[in-house]
Amino acid sequence: MKSFRMPIAATAMVGVAALAVAVGGASASTHAAAHAAASSPFGAVHKATGTPYTFGLINDETGQVTFPEARQAEIAAADYVNEYMDGINGHPIKLADCIGDGTAPTSARCASELVAKKPLAILGAADSGTPGSEPVYERAGLDYLGGIPFTPVEQNAKNSIQFWSVSLGDNAAASVYAAKTLKAKTAVVLYFSNSQGEIAGLHIIPPVMKAAGVTTVDTIGIPPTTPDPSPEVASAIADHPDVVYVDIPNNCGVVLKDLKSLGYSGKIVGIDPCTSPQAIASAAGAAQGMYIASPFERSGSQFDLFLAAMKKWAAPNTAIDSIAEAGFATVMNVRAGLDTVKGKPTSASILKAFTTGSNHANFMSHSYTCNGKAVAKAVSICNDYYVIEQIKGTAPVIANPNTWITSKGYFKGL
Predict the structure, then answer these.
(1) What residues make up the domain containing 363?
(2) Which tens digits make up the pLDDT trace of 121-155?
(3) How far is CA 126 from CA 74, 241, 317, 380, in A?
């Protein structure tokens, strides 16, 4: 992961410092301001003052499964970029959002509302209703950039740029890890029995596990609205599998507690929403030792910046997980890409900014190359590398330092 370019000190601050030196030395207040800028993860203020560039986004925040952290993270990133990074070539980022419920009809309605606001492009967030929204964007000539590519629609759309794969590539990479590193021969997959959950729970995790060497993979669906998943959990562990894969994005802690209380002692592999502080706390110790594949590195200056920005600009108690990281990094990557475009970006110049060249810096993540070859049958995804984390104490830590995991050669596509 390459470091991003922090903004230089504002011209006004340089001028004030120079004047102070000319009259006998910088004042104490000038020294204090300089020290504060140096110690802050944000750097010096460099506020965007031009005409705003509007970006649309749809985010699932009602319905059975919700991801409010994606939108909150994009708000935090936009506020940071506008205040400290001069926006996009001096133009502040303005977000026009619509709240989805995970269904295609609602997303289609939201997309029509966003198109009417004449956005520059669409920022992907957590919209599992993209089969409804993506055709609206294509007809309007709008590019779809980043976010969480939940469905094959945005994973293959000609106007879509995806900087990582969350829900497809991460599940596939974790499945490879379960087989190759954890040496599992038997596994059970617990998944939400809805349209989105079945994609990973039935069509990604089991075939990749088997391709990588797991002999037996059973699958058990849990209704997203069930108040008590213990019967499904008891069924999952009845034959003492080597690995239980918990593909449960909401209320993961309940399933983990059931695994522990029912006496399961094998390996657990989960998904990144299970690593949020709220999820770990709700598991009451049962998350310990769980493995997760994440496209994001949770250390270093970029991660520190993300945490600081979320604390400053996101709503209180927003979950810190890969969904939030994807939202924040989407804005950072879009800003970096479009900052290279001369003049007001168009649909063609936006796509060119991301598809030209290779190994582009990817915020908190592995570099990306948009050549259609990162993930099988998902030509819009530009990066298929993940770090494996394990829950230790109250947070995930890197299980295999300096190692990126990929599903290449094992995942054959949806």
Answers:
(1) 53-165+300-383
(2) 999 999 999 999 999 999 999 999 999 999 999 99
(3) 11, 32, 18, 16
